């Protein structure tokens, strides 16, 4: 058991979610920035629809709490977290499209392409992706331009061809979308598609805090374990959860013929794997002592979540 009670953890998570919501609201306002020509209303409304009023904001929370280990300013960490959340929200918009997972429901509401149309959804995702890199390069994040460069490069690599986007195409290939019988490496797909952005939430704090190599590696190891635990919990929820709690259809993986941790390990095997990953996450950040309590609680939250 960590030194952070469930109620204290919930308050911290909710506080970061509220702060992230307020910050995203400002970043997605209609106010035109220097070098922008206009902010078209339809585009801005669509971007706000898909990124405001929803989600636990776990990824920004990981940035804030990993940065807190090094005493980094909360305001700077929230900006990086907002950039990461823009990437996450863009990915959900595109994942829901008919050409991808073809989902009608997200966070208990119609998906963006159902609310508007495919073209608006594609462009809203593009807008959020691009805005993320505008945000993460801002001077107020860190006075050292090299720190901002490292944050930007890491975000690109976690979100791009060697991370989330690459994982998405491997996932589609695993469904047989492109013909052939390509071998399915569920762990690799997870590490890229889902785990990469969660891992970024952890290493971003190390970059902001200008951590030592040992400290960086500890948060990297923690982020990898947490990312895999998150995906296995997601796979279990798809089997054992209900649509009302999830805010999206349950059983979607089976309907798409996806190979998941549950199909490979079975329900009990998957649950044991989560327990093993929690132990690994705890061990990874133990070098930080009491400063790691919230991160250890976050790993348990990920493993035990119901939505």
UniProtKB/TrEMBL annotation:
Sorted alphabetically, which SUPFAM superfamilies does this protein's record hold? Answer: Terpenoid synthases
Give me any GO biological process, just one.
Answer: terpenoid biosynthetic process
Q: Which cofactor does it need?
A: Mg(2+)
Q: Which family is this protein grouped under?
A: Belongs to the FPP/GGPP synthase family.
List the protein's name.
Probable farnesyl diphosphate synthase
Cited PROSITE patterns: POLYPRENYL_SYNTHASE_1, POLYPRENYL_SYNTHASE_2
Query: By its UniProt entry, which InterPro entries does this protein fall under?
Result: Isoprenoid_synthase_dom_sf, Polyprenyl_synt, Polyprenyl_synt_CS, Prenyl_diphosphate_synthase
Q: Print the keywords alphabetically.
A: Isoprene biosynthesis, Magnesium, Metal-binding, Transferase
Q: Which domain of life is it from?
A: Bacteria
One Gene Ontology cellular component: cytoplasm
Signal peptide segment: none
User: Is the keyword Transferase in the record?
Assistant: yes
Q: What is the lineage of its organism?
A: Bacteria, Pseudomonadati, Pseudomonadota, Alphaproteobacteria, Hyphomicrobiales
Gene Ontology terms for molecular function: metal ion binding; prenyltransferase activity
